[in-house]
Prior knowledge:
By secondary structure, the protein is of the alpha+beta class.
Amino acid sequence: MKKLLAALLLLATACSESREANQLTRTQLGEKWPFTVESVTVNSDGPAYTVTDPDGREYALNGTASSIKDDEGKPAYAPLEEIWMKEEIAPGVMGRKDLGAITALAEELEHGK
């Protein structure tokens, strides 16, 4: 996991003064890829973490982002479950792929590492 995180951090680049972002692809993470889309941009706007799919739709990656509302009081970001891949975690039991590498990268972006 540390090697994977280190490799992901090498790819991190700033996209604006207040918002940090990094694009990741299925190829980079291989079997650990947790999404149904081929790539995402991991975003950190302070403690609100999101991912953006190739079509530009932004999804809440953590509770802070999930709690943000737009001007009409609706969630500002789409629910991650729309692109979060399911996997069998035990015979007949479905769960979701681990987001550890993605959230770790978002945390690193937030803290400017």
